[in-house]
Each structure stands twice: as C-alpha cells, then as structure tokens.
Amino acid sequence: MSFSFNGIIEFVAVAETQGFSAAARKLNVNVSHISRKVAALEKELGVSLLARSTRTVRLTDAGQAYFSRCQELVYGLQEANETVFDKQVELSGTLKVSAAGEFAEQHIAPVLVEFAQLHPKLTIEMDFNSQMVNFIDDAFDFSIRYGPMKDSSLIARKLTNRSLVAAASEDYLVENGFPTHPNQLIEHNCLMTNNDTWFFRDNSKTIKVKLDARWRSNSVRSVILACERGLGVAYLPRSSFGNAIKNRTVVPVLEPYWNREIATWIVYANRNFLPAKARLAIHFLLDKFKDWQE
C-alpha cells in the first residue's frame, strides 16, 4: 500500500500550532486549505488524526503516533531543500554560536569561517565559553558541546565521535611509574580541566575514577603545557594534544582503557523556530564532519 505526502505538511503545522488558524498563518495559506488537506489525509489513512471542538484541536492517539514520525519527515525535507540551496540563499543578520575548547577553535571555527564566506551579509559571533548557555536569555542559535547530554529538553545532533587519550611526559613516567590500570591514577598527579571524575572503559564496563587535581584550568592548552613539562597525567580528547603525541613530548598511557566514543554535539533549544541561518549552518557543519576522523 502506498501513500502520498499530500497533507502531511499541513497536518504537522496544525499539530505544532494546535490550531487550524495558527497553522494557516504559519504556512501563509487560508484556513480552508488547511482543513481540506488534513481531511484528505485522514481519509487516505482511514483514521482520525485530530479531535476537533469549537475551541481546541488535539491529537488523537493515532495522530500523536503519526505526528512524531511525520514531524521528522517534514524537518528532514525542509533541511534537505535548504542543503541543496544553501549557497544560493542570501542570509543576513547575526548567527550566535557558543563553543568551548581546542576542538572548537581548531576545527569548528574554520568551518564557520567558510560558511561566513558563502554568506557575506551574515555576521557570526562565536563565544568560547565552557559554561552551559541559556538559549533564550543569551540569544544563542546553537552551541557545540562535548560528552553526555544531560538536558533532555534540548535538541542534540551528533557532529562526530572523539576519543579520550591519557598521556604524560616521559620524564614524569620514569620518575613516578607507568599506570597500568585507571584506579592507579589515584596515586598520580592528575591535570584537569573542569571535571575531576574520569571515565574509562573495560570492554562494556565503565570505570569511574574520582581524582584530585595537581593542576586545574579551563584552558586546554595550559593543561597540555603542564603535561609536557612533567607535572602529571592528562586525559583529554586526542585532538586536544595537537602534535604532542606525534612529537613524543607526551607518551600515551592506559590505552586499553581509553573511552573512544565520546560524542560532540550541536545543541539547540527548539527546532520549530530555528531560523534559516542556524539550520543552514548546522547542516554545513554536519556535512563537513560526516567523514571526519580524529
């Protein structure tokens, strides 16, 4: 059995705005058009999607299940269209992005510079701050975040996976010994950013180690410098070490226990009202990082 997409956009608009009039305003059509399209869709499916009264419109159980799937389809179609035409769309105004860390500076910023070059009338503001942002009060379009997502109210799109690497200088290891298990780090000097609990993996098992900091800084570069100078062990994304591992100014340790799949996310508050400049920038980033390897 095959169905057309006729009426799905109108149905999703009604479900999102909770009304036929509001949906009509959103799509810039008249109310009768919305009503006809939704009625035709219900007839085609053979099920009522909306329960209508004189004052309210609500989803039926079938409508709720259908909406949860169709909403993604409509967004996907919208995003696919914008991806095709992204170089032809003239964007203006200000795109405000929150990011943090060496990865954002070395890899995210250059991609957004390239995006800005495609849209000369667009201004981009990047705020390199490790604190969680308030998308409404701080007016950020989206943020780049690393690690587990704790706020389920936000929308998160995975940008890429990255691997954590534990390392120390050879001089430090000669003097203090090579740790062979993450629990032994309690006996070592540890260099930290903003997290005093390190997570390692042993096959499918998570190893959680809470540590005291010998050096703590929200600057990754200063942590790497302290690591190279023999101050202790650092546990950071591979890309944060730059050429330090290649040049052997630091030596990897505990490699069998590294956490190798920590996601970097593009995070934003509400997809319904995400402006075109943000949607296009997000898709530009996703496209650039689809085959990225650390």
UniProtKB/TrEMBL annotation:
PROSITE patterns: HTH_LYSR. GO terms for molecular function: DNA-binding transcription factor activity; sequence-specific DNA binding. It comes from the Bacteria. Gene3D superfamilies: 3.40.190.290, Winged helix-like DNA-binding domain superfamily/Winged helix DNA-binding domain. CDD domains: PBP2_CrgA_like. SUPFAM superfamilies: Periplasmic binding protein-like II, Winged helix' DNA-binding domain. Residues 11-60 form the HTH lysR-type domain. PANTHER family: HTH-TYPE TRANSCRIPTIONAL ACTIVATOR TTDR-RELATED, HTH-TYPE TRANSCRIPTIONAL REGULATOR. Belongs to the LysR transcriptional regulatory family. This is HTH-type transcriptional regulator PgrR.
